Amino acid sequence: MSVEQRVCRQFEREFGDLPSLLVRAPGRVNLIGEHTDYNEGFVLPMAIDQAIWIALRPRTDRQVILHSLDFGQVHTFSLDSLQHSGAGWAEYVKGVAWALMEAGYVLRGWEGVVAGDVPIEAGLSSSAAIEMAAARAFAAVSGLPWKAATMARLGQKAENQWVGVNCGIMDQLISAAGQAGHALLIDCRSLETRAVPVPASARFIVLDSAAPRTLAGSAYNQRRAECESAVSKLRAVYPEIRALRDVTLEMLEAHGELLTPIELQRARHVVSENDRVLQSVKALQEGDLALFGRLMIASHESLRHDYEVSSFELDTLVELAMATPGVLGARLTGAGFGGCAIALAYAEQATAAAKAIIARYQEITHRSGQAYVCTPSQGAQAWSV
């Protein structure tokens, strides 16, 4: 039974009638462009097949009642008295409501059932998916216009200020604005997007290491600080730069002595990664999968050595992928220190490659690991039932 069918069936059980609305918001995987978003650079994510679904109907009051099939929990809250109630999935929904009302939107209550097949804590952004599903639900019942970039910003605000996670904008924006059959080039400074067609001959394999991301939070904050420090020092020579987005490799070569060795490594990764993203867009547009694969490998090496966010498990997945027939490139994806890697493969060989990589990975690491063959899907949607 599909997730869509499950939420509809459970809604009928819980509320005694069919839902009037369905919303869906996908998870995402970043094809290339890692740790560039908070440096105002470029990223190239793709909305994936796995998504969060909500079956719902509007209420006449300002109560929200939401049943989670995945967690076996029911949360009820009033839009007139939003309060934190600890950590957990419901805080993302409340955070979105708070951000929408802070922006001046008048919201209506609703009741619904939520479930999803986006793996949790695998680096596929289940949190952004539930935020954008909630935003779609509130927009649908409250008669709000759906503006993807606006809703993505509000989802980011919810995660930053209500949930307390200092994320960039990429996850919410690709979940809100993804297009079927396309990756999405995002300029993280202007939030301008461009759909980039993914050749039908290509598949992306998400490889979940099943390794906990124990250092991801502290290391993420440290890397951000190192990048900001590098920018402040380079401004002594280049006062016009605002972020590493504005820095070139030539600038680093000319004035790298202003930075500590670690800052130089971090800056070199971000600057070179932005260039790889733009080259990757051209490669996809020209159907040059071999070049895209080489850029993925270069990205992983930069993340491994210059940004130092890889791990034994992620390196193992990448090495196994590159030794597998049909695979053209692989790299870690997400913050690193666990989570997922991603591989590019020919469509007709992708399923066999995914099984082979994970089987070998399990033998070597004794971790469970999972693989998902993904195609680019549509961003957040709402339907009347």
Structure in words:
This protein is α+β, with helices and mostly antiparallel strands and 385 residues long. It has two domains: 3-197, Ribosomal Protein S5, domain 2 (2-Layer Sandwich), CATH 3.30.230.10; 203-374, 2-Layer Sandwich (Alpha-Beta Plaits), CATH 3.30.70. The protein is built from eleven helices and twelve strands. The chain has helices spanning 3-15, 89-102, 126-142, 148-163, 170-177, 216-234, 249-255, 261-285, 289-305, 312-322, 347-365; strands at 21-32, 42-58, 63-68, 73-78, 110-116, 182-187, 193-197, 202-208, 327-333, 340-346, 370-374, 381-384. Helix 2 (89-102) packs across helix 3 (126-142). The protein is globular, with a radius of gyration of 21 Å.
What labels describe this entry?
385 residues, alpha+beta, Ribosomal Protein S5, domain 2, Alpha-Beta Plaits, 11 helices, 43% helix
Concise overview:
With 385 residues, the protein is an alpha+beta fold. It has helices at 3-15, 89-102, 126-142, 148-163, 170-177, 216-234, 249-255, 261-285, 289-305, 312-322, 347-365, and strands spanning 21-32, 42-58, 63-68, 73-78, 110-116, 182-187, 193-197, 202-208, 327-333, 340-346, 370-374, 381-384.
